[in-house]
Design a protein that fits this description.
It contains 2 helices and 6 strands, in the order ββααββββ. It is of the alpha+beta class. The strands form 3 sheets. It has a two-stranded antiparallel sheet. A two-stranded antiparallel ribbon has the order 3-6.
Length: 104
Amino acid sequence: GIIAVYGDGGLIFGRGTLDNKNTVFGLLEALEFMLGKDIQPKRTIYIAIGHDEEVMGLYGAAVITEELKRRGVRFAFMMDEGCPVLKEGSFPGYHGPVGLVGTA
C-alpha cells in the first residue's frame, strides 16, 4: 500500500506514484473525452483496475475475474499495460527498442 503521499507544487510523491498511475489516468481521461464528445464505441469496453497485483492480486484481479465470469462476460481480447520496453539489441533480428504488449 501507499506509505505516504503528499503534494508539493502540483506534484505527487509516494510509493507507487510512478507505477501504473499514468496509465490509469490516461484511460480515465480517454473515457471522459469520449463521454464528452458522445462517442459510442462499437463494442463494450471494460477497464479493470486492481489494487494488489504486487501481492498476488487476491482481492483485486481475482475478484474482478470471478465477477466477470459470474456475469458471463467473454472478451474478444485483453491488453495488459505491464510489459516493458526492451532496450536496443534485446530482440533477435531487430536492433531498435521494442515495446511489448501483453494480450490474451
